[in-house]
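Worked problem 6 (solution included).
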Amino acid sequence: MKKFTFLFAILLGMVFSSVAQPKIGVRAGYNLTRVAKLADLDDYEYGRAGFDWKSAANFGVTIDLRKSERFVFRPGIYFSMKGFKDNGSMMPVTNLNYLEMPLLAVFQISLGEKTRLEFQIGPYVAYGVCGKYKFESGVVKKNDSFESVYTKFPSFKDGDFKRFDLGGNAGLGVNYEHYYLGASYELGTTFIMTDAPNHCISVNLGYIF
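Solution. The predicted structure is:
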């Protein structure tokens, strides 16, 4: 965690030294997230090759460092909630919450005096800070039927899921004056669990100061 924060501070120092008048932005939005396993025989037994999508959220801060009229370098830091569902299994809900740093190259096209269309692409690095998963610990009889009993466990504490994640981000957005609306897709390159990287679709609103 300390190394992650130190790396972010060094990066900002380097880019601030080469760009005048950076613009700070705040973002918040919706995540639709899961992990997707590589296809194998066990997956096809259940008729799918991944887990179910889970709704979550994200919020963070960005810094726009303009290099030219059409190009902006945009680092940021987010609290991004991820995870997955696996309905019908012994582990139905898993929450994986990250401190995440995207490093995006943003290409902007003017659509008018106050409006810009932008395309973003770049890597991200993330560190798992918290989260819990439910695991079936038994069954109880209730009203002539049996119901599962679940116990919650920390997601990252015992190495059940890897803390460090690395991947790529691509997206599309619109800036109107100080306001931002955009959507992006993240694909992890790190196996958070066996043969399973993170996938995340995000829709964000923002304000640029």
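Discussion: The radius of gyration is 20 Å.
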